[in-house]
UniProtKB/TrEMBL annotation:
It comes from the Bacteria. One of its GO terms (molecular function) is endonuclease activity. Residues 51-106 form the HNH nuclease domain. Pfam families: HNH (PF01844). It comes from Clostridium lapidicellarium. PANTHER family: HNH NUCLEASE YAJD-RELATED. This is Putative HNH nuclease YajD. Keywords: Endonuclease, Hydrolase, Nuclease. InterPro entries: HNH, HNH_nuc.
Amino acid sequence: MPFKHQRPCSYPGCPELTSERYCSKHQKEIENKYNKTSRPFKKLYNGRWRKLRKQFLKEHPLCEECKREGVVTAAEVVDHVIPHKGNEELFWDESNWQSLCKHHHDVKTAKEDGRFGNKNEVYSY
């Protein structure tokens, strides 16, 4: 199996060579920073949410986006139509929920989070 060529770490000013994006020291730093900032509202998704999510998926078992495309696909995710950004009233508002398959949820979230070249900000830090 061929080896990846080593190149400098992508962390600004780090001269370490690595076959990954960051050297092992900076990879840990990047992961810690990501974990602290990527899901600032993670606590809302524990406890009560799990039960409500399960019930919502029972009542709305098909992906809304797939239905619009004329395809029948089981929903796996309960999505917030309008991103709640930590607003608990919006988070718990069932009229703001929709059932989506993982693919459509990932695409929607990526667009909202600024990936795929879209620089919208869902969360403010």
